[in-house]
Design brief:
The chain has about 170 residues and is an all-alpha fold. The chain has helices at about 10-20, 30-40, 45-55, 60-80, 80-90, 95-100, 100-110, 120-125, 130-145, 160-169.
Length: about 170
């Protein structure tokens, strides 16, 4: 099948169509080409669409979904709007929790691993409506609960999650 990657909209449509990588016409190389074009040419308006492409049921390499998360950060940073990019992601929590809970959680883990994002993350969280805030807090609680290091029983994310929660109250 011939796919046209002439516009950002076409790229996003192709990615959305192929996100599960379970159809005969789905092609990871085309998906990656479309994502690369979005990454290099899209503006902040593409972030919400990227959130909707994330899906836990993808049969393709998980790197494709991870690349979407990285693209969200990349676009936000490129336009010097990290807080807004994070906010757009977080304000779609109620949608993503239905079909991309693993990738939603991965986004938070990526932020927790990157202390220089905390300021933007905390500011974005403070802007959330109640529904999205509850989902986020539940997710942070799960991350904190699940990540006990096996060697010494210490929770790697506990201090980081506690800091974030304390900072938003």
């Amino acid at each position: 099948m011939d796919y046209s990657l002439n516009s950002i909209e076409q790229c996003l449509q192709i990615m959305d169509k192929m996100k599960l990588m379970c159809n005969e016409d789905d092609d990871i190389e085309i998906f990656d080409e479309a994502l690369y074009k979005v990454r290099t040419e899209a503006d902040m308006s593409a972030i919400e669409r990227l959130c909707n492409i994330l899906d836990d049921k993808t049969e393709g390499p998980c790197s494709a979904m991870e690349d979407i998360l990285n693209t969200i950060f990349y676009i936000s940073e490129k336009y010097k709007q990290l807080e807004q990019g994070i906010y757009i992601f977080l304000s779609n929590s109620y949608k993503m929790i239905k079909y991309a809970v693993d990738w939603y959680e991965m986004f938070h883990r990526m932020v927790l691993w990157t202390p220089n994002l905390y300021e933007y993350y905390i500011s974005a969280i403070k802007r959330l409506d109640k529904q999205n805030l509850e989902i986020l807090l539940h997710t942070l609680h799960n991350i904190k609960k699940e990540d006990i290091e096996k060697d010494n029983g210490k929770n790697f994310f506990e201090e980081k999650v506690d800091f974030i929660i304390k900072s938003i109250k």
